[in-house]
Protein: PadR family transcriptional regulator
Amino acid sequence: MSLRHGLLALLEAGPRHGSRLRAAFEEHTGAAWPLSLGRVCTTLGLLERDGLVAREGVDGAGRVTYALTRAGRAELRSWYARPVELAGPPREELALKLVLADTAPEVEVREVVDVQRRHVSEALHDYVRQRAELLARRLESPGEVARLLVLEQLICHAEAESRWLEHCAARLLRLHPPQEPERPARNADGAHTVDHLPQGAPRR
Structure:
């Protein structure tokens, strides 16, 4: 998520201070991505350093308001025009965890996959429920429409991760098939034989 460009887009409507930007961000995203005021202020400082925003003034509460610069508007137009780069495997932490679990001596990697599959299934069920509740009423505010779009993105991501985990489970099963327990050998009469007993040990 590009918070830099998100703040630039919100400032296009006019100068705002950090608290108002934070509230507007959560309103537009339906609070799907919680955002701290400290992160907003830090990002505003970086945008100011790069010449994309400038301090407009101070409101009655002593809060600094920021406005887009010409360079900021140009960067925003460029952001809208270019595609978003794919970040790599979904949830790099999860991919790393599976890679390391497969070589860890005391970890069963298939159990790690199963735990994640259950978690994704529960999350997906919750997203679908929230979407159904949202669609049950008329969507009139921009915040509700944004919430719907974000939920549908979360649903698509969860479905994709679920398919990937199913693939991982099948792949690991082929690479590491479960070991069948050894069966005791039988003699010519069909009776079980006992091997490797110490000399003189009783046979049952």
Notes: The helical segments are 3-11, 18-29, 37-49, 70-81, 92-101, 109-135, 142-175. The chain has seven helices and three strands.
